[in-house]
């Protein structure tokens, strides 16, 4: 049933120029075989309404660590600095509970066209390993930024690894082109995913002893 629904969503996207076409292009670093397995997920979680003035992209990262190890880090909405570059600090309200609607205040390192960011947890599915957030305020240029991250375990020929997909949609700032906006956002997301791989692969090697849940 889910596969049929996903195929229907992909077919609809192909005939709708205002829907992102992420299911058509394999993200850099992934194989066609991996992406074929992930297409239903792309259709369900990584498809956005786009049009003039909007920019969207999908990136992927292969991680040589078990799914549970990677999800353990990705799910921590209150600790993005564990694997995200350019974050100086992150604070949440006293009594914060990891649930949809929770917010965090992020301080960005100097040198970027941003200072602070207020972000809301929009999606957290512990069973399907899906999380997403949106930027709702702060001093930055990423207006109406929404992002979804999904984590997928693979096991073939005796090998175990994980693929992480992260997509976003954001307004194109006045005075910028869609290409420039995508280049900036893609660079930040790609660096974050690379650091996620480095952090979680190290955790897998030492059993996660140095990571506090």
Provide a concise account of the structure shown:
This protein is α+β, with helices and mostly antiparallel strands and 213 residues long. The chain has helices at residues 2-14, 32-45, 67-74, 178-206, and strands spanning 54-63, 87-91, 103-108, 116-125, 130-137, 146-156, 159-171.
Give an overview of the whole structure.
By secondary structure, the chain is of the alpha+beta class. Helix content is 30%, strand content 30%. The chain contains 4 helices and 7 strands. A 7-stranded antiparallel beta sheet has the order 1-7-6-5-4-3-2, with helices on both faces. Strand 3 (103-108) and strand 4 (116-125) form a beta hairpin. Helix 1 crosses helix 2 and helix 3 crosses helix 4. The relative contact order is 0.18. The mean pLDDT is 89.
Task: Name its key features.
213 residues, alpha+beta, seven-stranded antiparallel β-sheet, 4 helices, 7 strands, 30% helix, 30% strand, globular
Structural class: alpha+beta
Number of contiguous helices: 4
What share of residues is helical?
A: 25-40%
Please report the total strand number as a whole number.
7
Largest sheet: 7 strands, antiparallel
Strand order of the largest sheet: 1-7-6-5-4-3-2
Q: What does the secondary structure layout of this molecule look like, with pairings?
A:
Elements lengths: L1 H13 L17 H14 L8 E10 L3 H8 L12 E5 L11 E6 L7 E10 L4 E8 L8 E11 L2 E13 L6 H29 L7
Antiparallel strand pairs: 1-7, 2-3, 3-4, 4-5, 5-6, 6-7
Helix pairs in contact: 1-2, 3-4
